[in-house]
């Protein structure tokens, strides 16, 4: 077989010249981005090693935690995303695949009722520590992810008196997961995560020293290895938003603009200090007696002119001696561009985390209806992404485990002739997750638009109910049915019927 490259022919059946095979045959344009000219001459990108990447991630996590605790705008950014994405919880609505399972509508509704009641019981005892309900667990989880870049939950089976379910979730601080000092040379362990074939996680190394003191010199004897899978169930739930192909640990959302957060916080603090000093009305005393300050060269005459020192509190005026005149120390800060400068920095910070300025600063004073709605729609797309991420990576796997245990305990009874649970587990555990209520900028306009969308089959009652009220449309219809029955019993005419009756009655002019 010849080692020559294959010959390519053009439309005229003549061989094409292989310019790419010649070492000096390139005619590509030189790109400035790859050059070292001008302002790019000192731009050299550093790459992390496995060790430096771990240390960098830990420093970022520590700094992000400090910002979330002490920086107003960082705290606002974290809370805005967490509250609007999870808020009071993502609520499941059971949606079994009736076609796959061979069920009729009555059987499907019976299963939905059993599944949602089992979930209602479990979510109150979801926390292994017994402190948090499931929606609170979700809120803590997404806050931890935003601050530290990831979160860990370990599913446990706890047999404790008073519990209905054994399943519970144990929270683990991400800073406890790292590689033991005696296993750093193992190629299949990276930053506390042990990998198997194709890069699939098989275990997590969680520091658990006897003295509860975490340091990075601990050996594997001070760690607990948690399996990533326990049979068909997750042994550990590790969630982060991956932004590169081979990323193994998460990075804080505050990382790209962390320097802006810190510098802006320091700048505002210095401006406040300057304003406090200026508001104290400090006075500097100038004397026309140059020799009066040389106290050591004068006699200690009690009747002589004295140099007096006095510490003032805000709002006081100091009176000096003879030949002294006051000079008020003024501060010209903040400057005229203060508001515009701070707003520009906050817009840059918001762009880095996908949030509009109005959401971070909680400032809608410069917006009208259209611009406010545009800002909230932009933020809503980010919130929807986090909701989808939470559902797929955390809520849905937990829902499946809860329903499995409920079925094993007899709390869910399958109709006769149904497939075995493990043969159709995906059909049994299918669910729709309802996000927290978003609210409206102009309720009247938006509700009218939703009514038209339902009437013209553009949207559904279930979708609109979830978007506006964050509830269950079936429960709403049942409640409205009860309310209408009560209205008829009490002879209360609904406003809609009153309006119809008034339109049917002839006016006085028509009678004449």
TrEMBL record:
<dbReference type="GO" id="GO:0019068">
    <property type="term" value="P:virion assembly"/>
</dbReference>
<feature type="region of interest" description="Disordered">
    <location>
        <begin position="1"/>
        <end position="22"/>
    </location>
</feature>
<dbReference type="InterPro" id="IPR006429">
    <property type="entry name" value="Phage_lambda_portal"/>
</dbReference>
<dbReference type="Pfam" id="PF05136">
    <property type="entry name" value="Phage_portal_2"/>
</dbReference>
<dbReference type="GO" id="GO:0005198">
    <property type="term" value="F:structural molecule activity"/>
</dbReference>
<protein>
    <submittedName>
        <fullName>Phage portal protein, lambda family</fullName>
    </submittedName>
</protein>
<feature type="region of interest" description="Disordered">
    <location>
        <begin position="493"/>
        <end position="512"/>
    </location>
</feature>
């Amino acid at each position: 077989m010849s080692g020559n490259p294959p010959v390519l022919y053009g439309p005229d059946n003549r061989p094409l010249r292989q310019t790419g095979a010649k070492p000096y045959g390139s005619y590509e344009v030189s790109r400035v981005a790859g050059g070292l000219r001008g302002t790019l001459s000192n731009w050299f990108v550093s790459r992390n090693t496995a060790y430096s990447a771990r240390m960098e991630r830990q420093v970022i996590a520590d700094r992000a935690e400090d910002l979330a605790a002490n920086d107003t705008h960082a705290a606002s950014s974290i809370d805005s995303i967490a509250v609007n994405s999870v808020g009071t919880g993502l609520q499941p609505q059971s949606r079994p695949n009736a076609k796959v399972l061979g069920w009729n509508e009555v059987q499907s509704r019976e299963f939905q009722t059993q599944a949602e009641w089992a979930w209602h019981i479990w979510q109150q005892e979801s926390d292994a520590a017994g402190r948090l309900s499931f929606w609170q667990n979700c809120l803590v989880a997404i806050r931890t992810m935003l601050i530290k870049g990831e979160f860990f939950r370990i599913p446990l089976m706890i047999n404790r008196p008073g519990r209905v379910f054994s399943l519970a979730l144990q929270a683990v601080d991400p800073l406890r997961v790292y590689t033991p000092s005696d296993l750093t040379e193992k190629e299949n362990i990276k930053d506390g995560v042990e990998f198997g074939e194709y890069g699939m996680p098989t275990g997590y190394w969680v520091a658990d020293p006897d003295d509860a003191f975490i340091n990075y010199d601990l050996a594997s004897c001070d760690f607990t290895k948690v399996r990533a899978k326990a049979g068909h169930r997750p042994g550990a739930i590790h969630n982060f938003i991956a932004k590169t192909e081979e990323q193994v640990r998460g990075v804080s959302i505050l990382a790209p603009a962390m320097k802006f957060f810190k510098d802006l916080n320091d700048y505002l603090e210095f401006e406040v200090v300057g304003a406090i000093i200026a508001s104290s009305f400090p006075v500097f005393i100038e004397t026309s007696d140059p020799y009066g300050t040389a106290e050591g060269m004068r006699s200690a005459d009690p009747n002589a002119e004295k140099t007096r020192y006095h510490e003032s509190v805000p709002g006081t005026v100091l009176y000096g001696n003879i030949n002294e005149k006051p000079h008020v120390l003024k501060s010209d800060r903040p400057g005229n561009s203060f508001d515009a400068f701070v707003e520009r920095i906050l817009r840059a910070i918001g762009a880095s985390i996908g949030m509009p300025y109005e959401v971070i600063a909680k400032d809608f004073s410069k917006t009208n209806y259209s611009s406010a709605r545009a800002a909230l729609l932009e933020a809503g797309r980010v919130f929807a992404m986090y909701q989808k991420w939470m559902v797929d990576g955390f809520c849905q796997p937990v829902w499946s485990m809860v329903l499995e245990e409920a079925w094993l305990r007899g709390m869910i009874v399958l109709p006769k002739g149904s497939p075995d649970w493990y043969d159709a587990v995906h059909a049994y555990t299918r669910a729709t997750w309802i996000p927290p209520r978003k609210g409206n900028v102009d309720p009247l306009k938006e509700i009218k638009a939703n009514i038209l969308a339902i009437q013209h089959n553009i949207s559904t009652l279930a979708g609109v109910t979830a978007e506006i009220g964050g509830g269950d449309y079936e429960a709403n219809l049942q409640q409205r049915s009860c309310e209408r029955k009560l209205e008829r019993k009490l002879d209360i005419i609904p406003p809609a019927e009153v309006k119809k009756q008034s339109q049917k009655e002839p006016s006085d002019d028509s009678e004449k």
